[in-house]
Amino acid sequence: MASSNGRRSHLKWLVPGMHVKRWLLLLMLGSIVLSLGFAILIRSAADSHTFSPIVYFGMLQFADRPLRALVFSGMGLGLIGLALYKLSQALVEPFLRPGQGHVADIVYQHRRRRGGPKVVAFGGGTGLSTLLRGLKKYTDNITAIVTVADDGGSSGRLRQELGLPPPGDFRACIAALSDAETLTTRLFEYRFSEGMGLNGHSFGNLFIAAMTNITGSFESGLAEASRVLAVRGQVIPSTLQDVTLCADLREELEDGAEGWRRVQGESAIPGLGQRIERVFLQPEDARAYPAAVKAILDADVIVAGPGSLFTSVLPNLLVDGIARAVKAAQAPRIYICNVATQPGETAGFGVGEHVESLNRHVGEGVFMHVLANNNTRMPIPAPTAHFEWVTPPTDDLPGVSVYLADLVDRQRPWRHDSELLASAIMQIYAQLTNSQARAEKTALNHSVPAPTVVQLR
């Protein structure tokens, strides 16, 4: 079985897009020209010298010329192949980590990911890093656009003390996109439990803060951190301005009437347990980061979520210019609905309520495709019994195509499984960009599609 896998791995050198066959042909052409030179030299020597019987038999002079040519050509190709194989091992082996597999497999995966679609993903918190962890197996062309409205924990302290955007969500995304993800995640998530000034800070937040000071700007610090950690893609903010997330909450007054309450600060919003009617940024005219707008307009597919709807996803889209850029983009635009409701934020929400809230904040038609979970049969673990499944729609949602798939993480069923989620997104992308859909892509994204519910495999 192992030798069979090895042979299949070696054959991947011949797969289109590996950029190997052209150089093999050039090598063979050079070998043929060199062989012709030697043949002319030997023929000249044979005309003027008499060789011993050993040379006579070694050159197969007793055989017909076609047979001699076939034998020597086969021997030459075999020697060239063996030499290339051993040479690639000698040159590449020092750069491989144990257990990475065959060089051909690694190069094949690298080439495939480099040619993958350009994906732009919005969000923050655990949901975005879960998505990125799955997407990086399909493409290296990933842009994660992260909210800068976080004001709690270590990120909030660094934001107040150093005046830089909160690094927490950026830290999680960088770790998720890193080649050495497991070790990087453990290192970046390491939180100091003692030490004056260090207590409560995570190493990843301090690392990004240090990179910001060294490079002179937050965006340069992110870029250098990504380069050092071999990140696939890029992690950028939706805006570089200091913004505060605010919310209008609906509350019941003592006389039974309903009133409104305004709350400032992302960390203060979910804990109040009141219905969120509206979230907005202060200042409301915060300018979008130009690199984020460019990535959106150049994207092949745009994804929002998963994550906290009001405190992770919407803060990105509320930045001036971001939603307009998304709507102007020619790429398919997919909103990923959460697997479970979030207490204090989306309690009692189904897919329809998520879509309605999204449309109410950024306008209808910005996201016209929705991906939702349809596996609501798994038992709810006792410690997390307070969560509820986000129920799929029973009827079509106006102006929206809904794609349903099993997206549940078996270990933590209130979250998405990164591999199932990424696979579903790639399926939707393939369906929307096949030969027929490619010709209709503009209509799919800039006019109201017929409502549909599609079950993915």
Structure description:
The structure is a single chain. The protein has 457 residues and is an alpha/beta fold. The chain is 46% helix and 13% strand. It has 2 domains: 2-105, no CATH class; 115-148 and 238-246 and 276-455, Rossmann fold. The protein has helices at residues 2-11, 21-48, 53-58, 65-92, 103-114, 125-135, 153-162, 168-177, 181-189, 203-215, 218-228, 290-298, 309-317, 322-328, 351-362, 418-432, 435-439, 441-446; strands spanning 119-123, 142-146, 234-237, 244-252, 258-264, 275-282, 301-304, 333-336, 369-373, 401-405, 452-455. α15 (351-362) links the parallel β8 and β9. α6 packs parallel to α8 (168-177), α6 (125-135) packs across α16 (418-432) and α10 packs across α11. The longest helix has 28 residues, at 21-48. The mean pLDDT is 81.
Q: Output the number of helix runs.
A: 18
Helix coverage percent = 40-55%
At CATH's second level, what is the architecture of the largest domain?
3-Layer(aba) Sandwich
CATH superfamily of the largest domain: CofD-like domains
**What is the rounded Rg?**
29 Å
The span between the termini is: 30 Å
Number of strands: 11
Q: Structural class, please?
A: alpha/beta
In the predicted model, the low-confidence regions spanning at least 5 consecutive residues are: none
Mean pLDDT: 81
